[in-house]
């Protein structure tokens, strides 16, 4: 089976989520990596993709029309390339979720979203109902289109000699959409989805000031990324891209520290695959303690500063 | 400009889904059902566009069982003008829903199709993007801001790591994210009024769309349960445990 993986990249380097997707793709067959973008930095990403173990060929689509990953321009390109492939795998990230279904519909394929495991060439598992259930599904489509949940697969490593990069061209600007601007949240901290440690705050923080006053020093001490529950985001204590949960980011760090988070279903769906969960909450009956490996019942406004002082 | 708002009847947001013992799915008998929360946000946004004078008519459409009428009535009570129910008792996958919506788009010629980014039952996050592909129109997914400017719509999108704004040529497909707005509650007089608003009954056959599923669900299981761990007595104990984990020096 020949498999095409849309490899996302940043600053000339394939993103971690794509390394996981390549691992998933290897379970299906021979993996070719597709790098889409514009200019020198995209070329550099293509070369780097060629060094990832298991990638046997790199396709590079370099055009000003692809600079901002607009699905209107990229989906027709991928759909045309799919003539030569049996499966397309994308990350279950905002880019992958945006592009993959558009390609699937062009191919008349029903996509399998958020794949957790590859059981065989046409059988996959995926979470439904916010991760409260895991469905095993069998696809009857001739070609498969999957988005892959990065935290469910190990990252492929960059070890092999560079493989061939071939240039591909597709339809250019469809003229339907235009990139206007991007507002990237800047942070010195690690990125949420790839962080080894995450410190997350919930509604019990009470205000935006207290959220940052309590969470940031601990995150700094631990070298952790900062996350938040949906309740904290809805209340305006933290920006939306901090959100961990069904409607936010799905994370699985080595250590997840939940502070003042009660543990609503929708939050647990986003972090329950973390290796070790630490919970600090004043309500000893909070559902978060049912999944936490280490729990501490008490007032976070006392515990967190004490913890920061003692680490 | 007409706005088409597809809505889905799903398990209520606050209900914890229970997997059936025979592994065939999630038990929905006697479970409270509601409008998919992301679709509620879509209905609200459509109403706001009408209140601003951008939209002239809001058409709510649902694909599902007879009971999906209730969901459409909710949309009508919130402020949609009329509704279409494409009735089927079969489970309909996003690809088939997109095909049906494409057929409705062809009939109604809306300027914007506004729908939720995903339904909270199957969590597919596909229908809007698929509809955009099938209709050959641009897509603004995961919207946190929607502004119509002449023959374009500017959509600010929630993306990994921040926000992105794109300008789309109308007609366009927009899928909603959580922060776009806070949906209103329908008032009692509006709920009464909604009962007399037009609701057309259709079937997938009326649109000539094959809705046969492409995926077969082999089984549905509960996820592996995490064992609750230990409750610690003091911060010092926690510091020691964190040290054991190699998190701190």
The largest sheet of chain A has its strands arranged as: 7-11-6-1-4-5-12
Quaternary state reads heterodimer
What would you call the shape of chain A? elongated
Helix content of chain A: 25-40%
Nearest-integer average pLDDT of chain A: 94
Distance from first to last alpha carbon of chain B: 62 Å
* Structural class by helix and strand composition of chain A: alpha/beta
Number of helices of chain A: 8
List how many beta strands of chain A DSSP finds.
18
Report the biggest beta sheet of chain B as strand number plus sense, adding barrel if it closes: 9 strands, mixed
Radius of gyration of chain A, in angstroms, nearest whole number: 21 Å
Mean pLDDT of chain B, rounded to whole units? 95
Describe it for me?
The complex is a heterodimer of chains A (311) and B (249). Chain A has 8 helices and 18 strands. In chain A, α7 links the parallel β16 and β17. Chain B is an alpha/beta fold. Helices cover 27% and strands 31% of the residues of chain B. Chain B has a 9-stranded mixed beta sheet with strand order 9-8-7-10-6-1-4-5-11, sandwiched between helices. Chain B has a two-stranded antiparallel sheet with strand order 2-3. The longest helix of chain B has 15 residues. The mean pLDDT of chain B is 95. β13 of chain A pairs antiparallel with β9 of chain B, so a sheet runs across the interface.
Explain the layout of strands and helices.
The complex is a heterodimer of chains A (311) and B (249).
Chain A: E1 2-6, E2 9-10, E3 13-14, H1 16-26, E4 30-37, H2 40-49, E5 55-62, H3 71-81, E6 87-91, H4 94-106, E7 112-115, E8 117-118, E9 123-128, E10 133-139, E11 144-148, E12 165-167, E13 177-184, E14 197-201, H5 208-222, E15 225-228, H6 230-234, E16 255-259, H7 265-271, E17 276-281, E18 294-297, H8 300-310
Parallel strand pairs in A: 1-4, 1-6, 4-5, 5-12, 6-11, 7-11, 14-15, 14-16, 16-17, 17-18
Antiparallel strand pairs in A: 2-3, 8-9, 9-10
Helix pairs in contact in A: 3-4, 5-8
Chain B: E1 2-6, E2 9-11, E3 33-35, H1 37-51, E4 57-64, H2 68-78, E5 82-87, H3 94-108, E6 112-116, H4 127-135, E7 139-149, E8 152-159, E9 162-169, E10 172-176, H5 188-194, E11 199-202, E12 215-221, E13 230-232, H6 235-244
């Amino acid at each position: 089976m020949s498999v095409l993986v849309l490899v996302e990249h940043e600053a000339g380097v394939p993103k971690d989520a794509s390394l996981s997707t390549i691992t998933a793709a290897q379970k299906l067959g021979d993996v070719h990596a597709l790098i889409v973008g514009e200019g020198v930095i995209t070329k550099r990403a293509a070369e780097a993709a060629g060094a990832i173990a298991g990638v046997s060929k790199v396709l590079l689509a370099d055009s000003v029309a692809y600079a901002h990953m607009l699905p209107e321009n990229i989906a027709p390109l991928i759909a045309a390339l799919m003539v030569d492939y049996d499966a397309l795998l994308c990350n279950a990230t905002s880019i992958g979720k945006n592009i993959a279904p558009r390609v699937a519909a062009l191919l008349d394929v029903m996509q399998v979203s958020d794949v957790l495991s590859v059981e065989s060439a046409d059988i996959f598992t995926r979470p439904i109902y916010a991760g409260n259930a895991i469905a095993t599904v069998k696809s009857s489509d001739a070609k498969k289109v999957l988005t892959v949940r990065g935290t469910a697969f190990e990252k492929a490593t960059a070890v092999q000699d560079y493989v061939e990069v071939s240039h591909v061209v597709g339809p250019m600007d469809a003229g339907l959409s235009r990139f206007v601007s991007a507002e990237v949240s800047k942070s010195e901290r690690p990125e949420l989805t790839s962080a080894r440690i995450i410190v997350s705050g919930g509604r019990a923080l009470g205000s935006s000031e207290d959220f940052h006053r309590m969470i940031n020093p601990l995150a700094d001490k631990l070298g952790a990324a900062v996350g938040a529950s949906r309740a904290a985001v809805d209340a305006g204590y933290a920006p939306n891209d901090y959100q961990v949960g069904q409607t936010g980011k799905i994370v699985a760090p080595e250590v997840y520290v939940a502070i003042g988070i009660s543990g609503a279903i929708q939050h647990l769906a986003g972090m329950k695959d973390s290796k070790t969960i630490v919970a600090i909450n004043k309500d000893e009956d909070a559902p978060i303690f049912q999944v936490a490996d280490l729990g501490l019942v008490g007032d976070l406004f006392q515990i967190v500063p004490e913890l920061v002082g003692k680490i | 400009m007409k706005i088409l708002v597809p809505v889905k009847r799903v398990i209520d947001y606050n209900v914890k889904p229970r997997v059936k013992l025979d592994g065939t799915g999630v038990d929905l008998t006697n479970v409270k059902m509601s409008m998919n929360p992301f679709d509620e946000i879509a209905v609200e946004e459509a109403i706001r566009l009408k209140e601003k004078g951008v939209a002239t008519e809001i058409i709510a459409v649902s694909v599902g069982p007879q009971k999906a009428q209730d969901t459409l009535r909710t949309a009508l009570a919130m402020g949609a003008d009329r509704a279409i129910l494409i009735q089927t008792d079969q489970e309909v996958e996003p690809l088939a829903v997109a095909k049906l919506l494409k057929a409705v788009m062809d009939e109604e010629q809306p300027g914007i199709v506004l729908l939720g980014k995903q339904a909270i039952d199957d969590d597919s996050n596909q229908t809007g993007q698929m509809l955009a592909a099938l209709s050959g129109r641009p897509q603004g997914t995961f919207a946190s801001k929607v502004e119509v400017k002449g023959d374009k719509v500017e959509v600010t999108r929630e993306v990994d790591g921040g926000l992105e704004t794109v300008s789309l040529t109308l007609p366009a497909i927009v899928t909603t994210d959580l922060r776009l707005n806070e949906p209103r509650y329908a008032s009692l007089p509006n709920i009464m009024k909604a009962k007399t608003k037009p609701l057309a009954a259709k079937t997938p056959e009326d649109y000539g769309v094959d809705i046969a599923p492409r995926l077969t669900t082999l089984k549905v299981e509960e996820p592996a349960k995490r064992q609750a761990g230990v409750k610690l007595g003091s911060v010092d104990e926690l510091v020691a445990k964190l040290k054991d984990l190699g998190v701190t020096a």
